[in-house]
Each structure stands twice: as structure tokens, then as C-alpha cells.
Amino acid sequence: MKTKLLLAGCIALLSFTSIAQNIQDKKINYSYIQFPAKPLKSGTEVYSVTVQQDFDQRNQDSLEWHEEQVKLAKERRELAMNAWNEQKKVVDRSYYAAMAEWEKQVAAGNTAAAKPGDPVYGQCPCEPDPPKPFLTNDIDADNVIGRIEIPGFTKGEGGATISLAFQGFDKGATTEKKSTSGDYVYTIKYKHPVKVKITDKGGAVVYDMIHPATSGFKSYTSQKFKSSYEFKLWWMDNESTFWEQRQKDVIGSIVSGINGMLSNDFGYPTKSKVAEIYTAKDKDHDYTDLLEAFQNVQDGLLQLASDRNKSAALNYFGNAVSQYQTILNESNTSDKKARVNKKVTSAVYCNIAECFLWMDDFSQAELFLNKAANLGIGKYKRHGNSLKPFIADQKKRFIANQ
Fold first, then answer.
1. Would you list the domain boundaries of the chain?
2. What's the average model confidence in pLDDT over 374-399?
3. Separation of alpha carbons 301 and 380, rounded Å
4. For the chain, percent helix, then strand, then coil, each to nearest 5?
């Protein structure tokens, strides 16, 4: 009995393995042109960039405030010094009088007379000047303008305008953390908000806000220090150069963040993606038609980056769908030995969904992914779940560009 069960198990395993090997996953690396989520007015092909330093007045106000504080500190020092000098005169007068009396007594032969102590003036007032204000460095406007890009557009006048208004560099909190090994590490926060205003070719404002990537604080993590005072010593020598470097570094981060927004919302960037297309192979069946359909899908995917209208790719996808529909005429999901069994049917459904996605028929793409999922094979359920968010995003972009 055990031998029969073992034999039956082996036969079942061999059968499962044969079926599992029936489907071949083919990965296709391709590029496509992503459409904007918030397209600019039709006919907009060029853009220009301007840079403003909205922090100039803040810098000026800080300098004027510092100048006034230095003046007030000087006046306070003079008043305090005058008062100290007057007090010194009183102390000196008392000391001189006491010394004069002591010298008289000594001259009269009173050698036991106690000599007065030295005068005590108290600490000389010395109020330091207030620290110099922290100023935002000037922005290299030409450098920033040269690095701002909208994929699919060229720079020039008469199109969209992008205004970048730098609000000023702000220092944040510095926090100390002591590790279990006794080392001290410091997190230093900073930010440089930038207001972005975008006007389309017709003059309509399509974006006007502080760019989110610049509104929050960024963090710099220091090296390790053996004590908090070691950090203080390092800070005395490096504070100025530290903030100089942060101001330089943050510009690159700002440009990168703004370019990402421009690309996603308004541009036509060329993106890279990997598609998973299925074919089949089995000694008992001929799947030449699946390979031919795969070739059409592959050719279509590789043509997507050729032009925005996808004209070169659509014929390939249409041919592939027709081929797959013909293959599905043989579908027999209840017969594992059928040429187009449940697994092949599920795989073909996923392939058709990929084609309909790029043919902008998103409802059909979702329908065929649901058909694949309803057949209950986990692999194709997961395939659909991973593809559906991309379909939803492509659908939103397609609608926005109508």
C-alpha cells in the first residue's frame, strides 16, 4: 500500500512539474514616454526660468538689526564704563585717604598701625558685541536656471514660465544622541524653502506654492565625538564652513526635487520599465502562435519610446491581441492536458492586459487581469496586483491629456 501511495505521489509530482514548466516567463526591458499628470496648455513647447532672492530683504533687515544692536551695546558699555570709572574714583579717594592717615601714623612712630588693603574696584564691565547675523548666501541664478529641465520641452521665450523664489536658508534644531558605546552624535537640521510659480503659455497660473520637497527640514548627521565638549571644540573651528557647505549642498537637492515635480506633473520623460510576457513550451503541444504573439508584443514595447502617439507600437499590439484571441478559442480550463489549459489561459489574459494597457484601453486591461485572477492561480493574481497601480496611473494621465 505504501509503495502504491509513493508511486502515485511521484506521478503527481512529475505531472505538476511538467505543467509548471509549461509556462515560460519572458522579461522585456523597454522604455516609454510618460505623459504629464498636469499638462500645460496645448501648443506649449518652450519654457523659461527666472530666479528670485526673496531673502534679500531679510538679509538686509538682519544686518540693520545687528548694526543697531552693536550701537546699543557700545552705548551700554560706555555708560557702564563711565559708572565704573566714577565708582573707581570713589574707591581711590577712600583708599588714598586711608593711606594718607596710615602714613601719618607711621611717621609719628606708630609702627603697629595696620596698612590699608589694596583698593577693590569690582569687575570691569565688558559687554561683548552681539554675534554677527546668519545670512543666506546669494544664489548662482545662472547655474540654477541651467539645471532646471522639463523633459519634452526646450528652453526659450514665449512659452511657459517657471519662477523660483528662494525664501532664505533657515537653521533648525541640533540634537545630541549618546550611543551605548559612549560616543556622541549630533543631528543638525536646516531648510531652504523655495516658492515655485508656473504660468502656461496663455498666462494661466498652473502652480503656485512652496515646493513640498523644500518646506521640511533636512538632517545632517555628524561624525562621532568622544564627548560633548569635543563636539563644542570642533564646532568652534568648523561652524562657519559647515553652514557654508550646507547652503551649497541644499541647492542641488532643491533643483533635483523641483525637476522631479516638473517631470512628473508637466513633462514627457522617457521612463524605463520591465514587462513580464508569457509563452509556453511543451513536447506534446506546438506553441508557435504564442511565440509569434510574444514577438509582436515585444516589438510594440520596444517602439513605445519612438513617439508620443505610439503610432509605431499600436499595430504590433493590435496584431498580438488578435493572435491571443484566436488562441483563447481553444481555452479549456478544466483540462490540464489541453494545449490552452487554465495556466496558459491565465498567462494569455495577462499578456492581453499588457497590450490593452498600451493601447489606452484601460477597462479592457483591468478586465483581463480580473479574468486571470478569477481562474485562481496565485502567480497571475500577483501579476495583476502588481500591474494594476501602474494601469491606474496611466489612466489618470491619459484622461488628463484629452
1. 22-35+268-401, 48-266
2. 97
3. 20
4. 50, 20, 30
Q: Which residue has the cell 561624525?
A: 223
Alpha helix ranges (H) inside 108-187? 141-147
Q: Kindly state the cell numbers that stand for 103.
A: 602714613
pLDDT digits (tens, 9 = 90+) for 309-336: 999 999 999 999 999 999 999 999 999 9
Which grid coordinates are listed for 36?
A: 504629464
CA distance 173 to 360: 50
Alpha-carbon distance 221 to 238, whole Å?
A: 15
Cell 512628473 identifies what position?
264
- The three cell numbers of residue 355 are 497590450
Residue 203 backbone zone (phi > 0: left; psi -120 to 50: alpha; other: beta): left
Element (H, E) at 397: helix 378-400
State mean pLDDT over 144-170. 96
The CATH class given to the 22-35+268-401 domain equals: mainly alpha
| Distant-in-sequence, close-in-space partners of 300: CB < 8 Å, separation ≥ 6 | 313, 314, 315, 316, 317, 320, 355, 358
In this predicted model, what pLDDT tens digit does every residue of 8-30 receive, in sequence order? 444 333 333 334 448 999 999 99
Residue 3: predicted pLDDT: 45
pLDDT by residue (tens digit) across 113-140? Answer: 899 999 898 888 888 888 889 999 999 9
Residues 226/182, Cβ–Cβ less than 8 Å: yes
